[in-house]
Amino acid sequence: MAHPPSQSNSTAANKPKRSNLLHYIAMFIVALIILVGIAVIIIWLVLKPKRLEYSVENAAIHNFNLTDANHLYANFDFTIRSYNPNSRISIYYDTVEVSVRYEDQTLATNAVQPFFQSHKNVTRLHVALTAQSVALYESVPKDLRLERSSGDIELDVWVRARIRFKVGAWKSRHRVLRIFCSPVLVHFSKGKSFERAPCEVEL
């Protein structure tokens, strides 16, 4: 009388099948990673992405008033130059926020209208910010008064934007773009010309 196959023999027979399946899955994953890597390299070689360039081209202060209670009132005007040097990549600026700071204290913040920047394009953003009864702390009031009396003030301009890249019909997911411009030397006297301030870009 024939005996049915034991459970141990059945388990042993299934092991090679499982091993082969895992082997094929591993090979597929490795091949997929290689193909994705090759695609990324090809796209990079075709597009040759270049770093975005920003600078502050002009800046002015109006109605500056620092009260005895160390509250600041002032209007700031900045012209920020944005240059996209890429020949195939365009950019959607979906949200843009600009702030002006002095010694790590934010003096004013304002939003800029969303815009689209095509390739090889220069866009100038004219930004107006208002400091309305901003309470200053620590050494900021004293230092501001000293710089005001000298006729010049060094400010920092920060830009934070949510952007998307566009290549043909393809659009990327949102990325956060941070721009830091410092020092931005602003003259209280209109007789002095403004010197362009380059910006650092983090993406």
Automatic annotation (TrEMBL):
TM ranges: 21-47
Gene Ontology BP annotations: defense response to other organism
InterPro entries to which the protein is assigned, alphabetical: LEA_2, NDR1-like
Pfam families xref list: LEA_2
Domain Late embryogenesis abundant protein LEA-2 subgroup: 79-174
Cellular component annotations (GO), alphabetically ordered: plasma membrane
Keywords: Membrane, Transmembrane, Transmembrane helix
Keyword NADP listed: no
Domain of life: Eukaryota
Topology of the protein relative to the lipid bilayer: Single-pass membrane protein
Keyword Heme tagged: no
Location in the cell: Membrane
Stated name of the protein: Late embryogenesis abundant protein LEA-2 subgroup domain-containing protein
Native species: Glycine soja
